[in-house]
């Protein structure tokens, strides 16, 4: 590795419900980072030779350990990020399901494929590992996201180094002990507390063979540029401003309930949550009334309180940004349907709000709103709904509610990586997840799809 400028910065975690500092974690020195990278590379040379049956057995152990430690893991994630405890428990359960899925299906997904071709008795396509994979992961789902980068790569035979967000390193660090306890060879999984400069050094190092990032499109642009410069595969899962289209033929009660629930999961702080509701004229009034009522019923407060439905935002900076976006829209003529916004006092609380009448002059028209802010667009008809849905720099996901055949036809016209038809799609383990446009490149999960992103798809030819 080339030298980097020494840093004395630390990862600093805060409780967003109180504002108090929880802990400081020092950045790795350059020498410590070099030792971890050397260990990951050496572990790869061993791990790639471990039979698939043994890998599967270790995956089962990891799933069992995550499940056993779920209360502890979830508490840490809620302390650092602020989402209510049931969401953190659900996030941890998602990580468990991921390892059980690859334990059950990994061997079949890695099986050789025979290809018929004239001039050969057969061609064999084999998925082989490539080496160390660097995962750069966000703060909104520190348990799930770290494992989403890890599981497909480990089952393939790669080793993984994960850089967590600076506000929630404690959540990801807990996995280092889990992998050790499960019996994985040392170095197969490591959490890295490193600076931006050290990340650049890692990407440039020949031992790091691929990079995956979940984060903002700005971060994705920077990491994608660096990976491209060093000719390395990269998966970028970036922002989203998903449209939730409600057609005249929709079940309005179902649509309003689903849209509100999706907008408020994790306090609205997830890329794959629908952020723009687009309702056609025939149902707009009925839908909006029910949608606003759902927002108004939320209870904001301590994320460990069972009665609370919306915890604090992840940081004061996040709450400040959402308030700026809301203020900008209102100042330029948006209509407030439900008053909300930053709450005075300790913590970074934001009372859910709903607005309508957003126009292209407003920041919210183009920017991703990361928090409990509902935006409702009223349009004349289906054609207008499709145009508005696609008039975004993002293309991660979306949803269409209406009569089944009509909704499916509209869904086919939405320029996104996925779409739910009368349901919220999210990111099921079994399906590829990723987007178009500024929402990124490549796909995660989805069985072989997620594996293939960082595999050497190697073809073997045999004579007639």
TrEMBL record:
GO terms for molecular function: succinate-semialdehyde dehydrogenase (NAD+) activity. It holds the Pfam family Aldedh. InterPro entries: Ald_DH/histidinol_DH, Ald_DH_C, Ald_DH_N, Aldehyde_DH_dom, GABD/Sad-like. It comes from the Bacteria. Residues 8-459 form the Aldehyde dehydrogenase domain. Keywords: NADP, Oxidoreductase. The keyword NADP applies. Belongs to the aldehyde dehydrogenase family. This is Succinate-semialdehyde dehydrogenase.
């Amino acid at each position: 590795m080339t030298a980097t400028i020494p840093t004395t910065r630390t990862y600093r975690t805060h409780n967003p419900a109180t504002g108090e500092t929880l802990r400081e974690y020092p950045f790795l020195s350059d020498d410590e980072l070099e030792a971890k990278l050397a260990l990951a590379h050496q572990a790869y040379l061993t791990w790639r030779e471990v039979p698939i049956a043994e890998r599967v057995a270790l995956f089962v152990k990891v799933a069992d350990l995550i499940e056993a430690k779920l209360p502890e893991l979830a508490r840490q994630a809620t302390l650092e990020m602020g989402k209510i405890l049931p969401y953190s428990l659900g996030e941890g359960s998602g990580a468990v399901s991921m390892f059980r899925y690859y334990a059950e299906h990994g061997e079949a997904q890695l099986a050789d494929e025979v290809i018929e071709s004239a001039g050969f008795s057969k061609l064999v396509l084999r998925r082989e590992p490539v080496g160390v994979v660097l995962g750069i992961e966000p703060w909104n789902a520190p348990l799930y996201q770290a494992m989403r980068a890890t599981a497909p790569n480990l089952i393939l035979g790669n080793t993984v180094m994960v850089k967590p967000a600076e506000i929630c390193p404690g959540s990801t660090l807990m996995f280092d002990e889990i992998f050790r306890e499960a019996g994985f060879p040392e170095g197969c999984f490591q959490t890295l507390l490193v600076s931006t400069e050290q990340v650049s050094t890692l990407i440039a190092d020949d031992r790091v063979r691929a990079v995956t990032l979940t984060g903002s499109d700005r971060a994705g642009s920077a990491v994608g540029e660096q990976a491209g410069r060093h000719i390395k595969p990269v998966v970028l899962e970036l922002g989203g401003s998903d449209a939730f289209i409600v057609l005249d033929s929709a079940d309005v009660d179902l649509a309003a309930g689903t849209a509100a629930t999706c907008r408020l999961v994790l306090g609205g702080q997830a890329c794959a949550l629908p952020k723009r509701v687009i309702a056609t004229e025939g149902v707009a009034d009925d839908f909006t009334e029910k949608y606003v009522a759902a927002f108004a019923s939320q209870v904001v407060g301590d994320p460990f309180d069972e009665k609370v439905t919306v915890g604090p935002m992840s940081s004061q900076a996040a709450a400040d940004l959402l308030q700026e976006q809301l203020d900008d829209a209102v100042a330029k003529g948006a209509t407030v349907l439900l008053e909300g916004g930053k709450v005075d006092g300790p913590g970074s609380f934001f009372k859910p709000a709903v607005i309508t009448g957003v126009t292209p002059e407003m920041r919210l028209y183009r920017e991703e709103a990361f928090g409990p802010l509902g935006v409702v667009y009223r349009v004349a008809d289906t054609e207008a709904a499709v145009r508005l849905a696609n008039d975004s720099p993002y293309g991660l996901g979306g949803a269409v509610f209406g009569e089944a055949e009509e909704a499916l036809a509209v869904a086919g016209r939405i320029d996104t990586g996925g779409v739910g038809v009368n349901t919220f799609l999210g990111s099921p383990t079994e399906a590829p997840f990723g987007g178009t446009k500024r929402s990124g490149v490549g796909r995660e999960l989805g069985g072989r799809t997620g594996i293939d992103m960082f595999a050497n798809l190697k073809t073997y030819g045999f004579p007639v």
